[in-house]
Amino acid sequence: MGIDAQAAALVSQVVGDGGVNPLLFVLAVAALCLVVRILLPQDQALLLLALVPAAPVIGVDPWVIIITLLATFSTWFFPSQTVGYLVAYDASEERLFTHGQARRVCFGFTVVLLLSLAFTVPYWKLIGLV
After folding, report:
1. For the chain, how are helix, strand and coil distributed in percent, rounded to 5?
2. pLDDT tens digits, residue range 41-93?
3. Owning domain of residue 66
């Protein structure tokens, strides 16, 4: 369908000849994945892999985009977002936790996840991935 080529062309138009801050790029990809996961189910959110061909345009290794997407892929802000969440909730016979408790844990998990991604960017820079 050419989505990957269109994504790379769009990114090159937005970025231009200037570079992009790797930290901002990683956090933007993570935020994009979190928003898309709220709107789309897991299997359809895989379309974000179309960003991988845009990695050389940004100046990052495609691995960075893939790891960022994988890390932010399994959030459970809503019960229907992740099958694993529903299985855990039903397997506990709805006695282990409430949806409100799980949502608070998801927000905490998301904050820790974004901070972890931010702290790994200098390491990725050190080993030449960004």
Report:
1. 75, 0, 25
2. 877 887 888 788 878 878 889 999 999 999 998 888 888 788 888 888 899 88
3. 3-126
15: which residues sit within 8 A by CB, 6+ positions away? 57, 58
Asked if residue 76 lies in contact with residue 102, where contact means CB atoms within 8 angstroms, the answer is yes
Phi, psi dihedrals of residue 16, rounded to the nearest 5°: 70, -145
Q: Are 55 and 67 in contact (CB under 8 A)?
A: no
Count CB neighbours of 15 within 10 A.
15
pLDDT score of 33: 92
* Cα–Cα distance measured from residue 70 to residue 13, given in angstroms and rounded to the nearest whole number: 26
Tokens of residue 53, six digits:
């061909």
Nearest to 77 by CA among 44, 113, 38, 117: 38
For residue 78, count other CB atoms closer than 10 A to its CB. Answer: 14
- List the structure tokens of 76: 């459970």
Looking at the 3D structure of the chain, how many domains does it have? 1
For residue 59, give Cα distances in angstroms to 17, 18, 25: 11, 10, 10
